[in-house]
Automatic annotation (TrEMBL):
Signal peptide: 1-32
Disordered: annotated segments: 177-205
Residues at the active site: E108 (nucleophile), E112 (proton donor)
Post-translational modification: Contains at least one intrachain disulfide bond essential for its enzymatic activity.
Name of the protein described by the UniProt record: Xyloglucan endotransglucosylase/hydrolase
Enzyme class: transferase
Signal keyword on record: yes
Listed Pfam families: Glyco_hydro_16, XET_C
Example of a GO biological process term: cell wall organization
Function: Catalyzes xyloglucan endohydrolysis (XEH) and/or endotransglycosylation (XET). Cleaves and religates xyloglucan polymers, an essential constituent of the primary cell wall, and thereby participates in cell wall construction of growing tissues.
Similarity field: Belongs to the glycosyl hydrolase 16 family.
Species the sequence originates in: Miscanthus lutarioriparius
Length: 326
């Protein structure tokens, strides 16, 4: 079964928080509303979140970038965006789509799209923060021009794994090994018979902290393009990242609950059903990749992975525990 399909066997999917990008409707005396507003709201620089017909744009100019955040938080979720990146000379510009909880010990799952000079490929950086600790960067180039059309970028988080996807192709999987069972899916096949797994100190996995969905665009020319050697050319501003659709399907955290509410943790963690309907993202078949998806992952990483912290011995003379056997 495909990892990102909503359930199986005719069961109804969870009542998704679904945003069909900006379907403007004229109300009364010419006042426009937008269905993006049902799910997201500006998080900073409100005037740099711009509606353009059926589309939503986050804008960067010499004065400011901009961003949005989901109106709800979620514990276990699939979040996706149909996104067209900044075209032309986008050196120094970073667009992000990510999930994050709050506080110093927060969890965070990042897509960061690193702009480049005209004609050079975008790089897509993924990262995970667990209990406030990141430094788990991987980078890929893409097998298409992400500025020419919309493509879907998604993160799935459930109790078994975090999966990053591009157009339904998994590009990265971070598995939960807290139960000290042998690694699942593709990791089990890497490294051959002599591969070892650290069972005495299992790798960390994101705990049950409610997360919001964010996107932002900003100037990062101190590091984003060729290590900061290429700066943003403001003569090309404004830079627009364009959204056609944003979808969030998960266990919505009660609006009046604190982030540590034990009742909400139980509701979202201990059952496959809740007030949202069936929690398809937690079903057994969601706990690892299918054979087809494993093949897709191997292909993507073999042909498009350009950086992996797991093999960066300069930064990590001692291999991080989640990298063991790779």
């Amino acid at each position: 079964m495909a990892l990102w399909n909503g359930g199986s066997g005719g069961a109804l999917p969870a009542a998704a928080v679904l945003v069909a990008a900006a379907l403007a409707a004229l109300l009364g005396a010419g006042v426009a509303t937008n269905r993006f507003d049902d799910v997201v709201q500006p998080s900073w620089a409100n005037d740099h979140m711009v509606y353009d017909g059926d589309l939503l744009k986050l804008r960067l100019d010499a004065n400011s970038g901009g961003g949005f955040v989901s109106r709800s938080k979620f514990l276990y979720v699939k979040a996706s965006a149909d996104l067209k990146l900044v075209p032309g000379d986008s050196a120094g510009v970073v667009t992000a789509f990510y999930l994050s909880s709050a506080g110093d010990k927060h969890n965070e799952f990042d897509f960061e799209f690193l702009g480049n000079v005209t004609g050079e490929p975008y790089l897509v950086q993924t990262n995970l923060y667990i209990d406030g600790v990141g430094n788990r960067e991987q980078r890929i180039d893409l097998w298409f021009d992400p500025t020419a059309d919309f493509h879907t970028y998604a993160v799935l988080w459930n109790p078994s794994q975090v999966v990053f996807m591009v157009d339904d192709t998994p590009i990265r999987v971070y598995e939960n090994r807290q139960n000290a069972t042998p690694p699942r899916g593709h990791h089990r096949r890497h490294g051959g018979a002599n591969a070892t797994t650290n069972t005495t100190s299992p790798p960390p996995f994101p705990g049950p902290q409610p997360m919001a969905v964010y996107s932002s665009i900003w100037n990062a020319d101190d590091w984003a393009t060729q290590g900061g050697r290429v700066k943003t050319d403001w003569s090309h501003a404004p830079f627009d990242a364009t959204f056609r659709e944003v979808r969030v399907d998960g266990c919505a955290w009660a609006a009046n609950a604190t982030d540590g509410d034990a009742g909400e943790v139980r509701r979202c963690s201990e059952t496959s059903w809740g007030k949202e309907g069936r929690y398809w993202w937690k079903e057994k078949e969601m706990s690892e990749l299918s054979v087809h998806q494993s093949h897709q992952l191997v292909w993507a990483r073999a042909h498009h992975l350009v950086y992996d912290y797991c093999v960066d011995t300069d930064r990590f003379p001692v291999q991080p525990p989640e990298c063991a056997g790779r």
